[in-house]
Amino acid sequence: MTTRLHNAVSVFSAFLLSVVFVALASAQTYPNRPITFVVPFAAGGLSDVPGRVLAAEMQERLGQSIVVENRPGASGLTGATTVLRSEPDGYTLLVNALADVQNLHYLSVPYDPIKDFALIGMVVDGPPLVLIVNANLPYRSVADLVADAKANPTKISFGTSGPATSPAISVSQLNALAKTSIVEVPYRGSGPAAAAVVTGEVQGAFVFYSNARPLHEEGRVRALAVASPQRMENWAQIPTMAEQGYPGFDHRGFVGLAAPGKTPPAIVALLNKHLNDSINSVSFRQRIEPLGMTIPTKNTPETFAAFMRRELAKQAELARLTGHSPQR
Q: Has this prediction a pTM greater than 0.90?
């Protein structure tokens, strides 16, 4: 019996050593074929643009081509699940975003966005949402908008990007804080919602900076507030929601990079190094900063995980405020 046990232990130890050896060998030769970045939203969106710029920068540094594959659906769940089920070898990566920490509080999510992935690092922080209204309306401040919304319940409608998205959550938060009944009208994204404000199909919307600023400067919409703690440096004339009586009204996106959970640490460390080299390059900043996004400073898998945990807690509070019960 003792001999059999000894043999079993020896076989198991040899197996473990072989697994470790294969993992190390794989990490040392990585990458030796093309890599895929899965973006779980449509092309041209908030996570797609930084993901594509990052892919172009990182493929030069890694010496392998990076293919960007859009897999939209189910508020990002379709693309994220695809990556989670792929081989943990560093060749299929997720360009993750704010939806990963929002979804848990509104949808049935088949994974934990932190524990089930090997987080590599943040790509960009921001931009904030911007509250815009149709240019022909008389509102010059959030107070003007809220006063009309209170005087005429359900008269005002706001375009959103669909349930459980930042624009929809922002409308729900404003309704909860201001005791208004602004109606949510879902569209296929921030761009279509902004277009509906221009035509007057809806009176307003919370849309991302990249959609809001050009339309505001063309006089087609009026920006009333930004949903960030401070005014934006490159658009300082637009006040914050906090300055207009809504402290803590903070809705900013983020984009990160993640791999399936069992990806070897050596591969994760290599990807983190090249990610940081890429986002700190002049060419990356020139493409990203005009979009209202900022580059993270200290950027490790651990700091990214800590950031996502803070976002999870914040989104849980928002879910409770707007009448949703967190799913986890």
A: no
